[in-house]
Specification:
Glutaredoxin, alpha+beta, single chain, 17% strand
Amino acid sequence: MIAEKEISIWTEALLSILEGKTKEEKKALFKKIIEILKNRKKEYLLPKILKRFESMCSKRKMVELYFAREQSTGLIKKMKKKISGMFGRDKNIEVKIEKDLIGGFRVKTANFLIKATVKDFLNELKSYY
């Protein structure tokens, strides 16, 4: 359990310090992290840290777009263009159908959830009354 927590902490640190850096800066910082792990005799954690880092990077690049039912390709293209403008062009946008929704859409990323569905609106109304 302690190792799992350490892996999470090191992975989060790696993600935060590498964000927005050049390739050369990333290499230097990564070497520094390896050196720190070796000094603390924790280099055995490195493969698990890298695996979790890879997984978290792919999640950060994922955007899920939910609809209640199938939509036209034109609408999907427009939505993808808007989402790319909001969250960045490097995102992988995956369109999904969620039968529980009545209408509208949801956009979900690692950090954000945009609720624009009839179901969410009705639930919000229900909570007020």
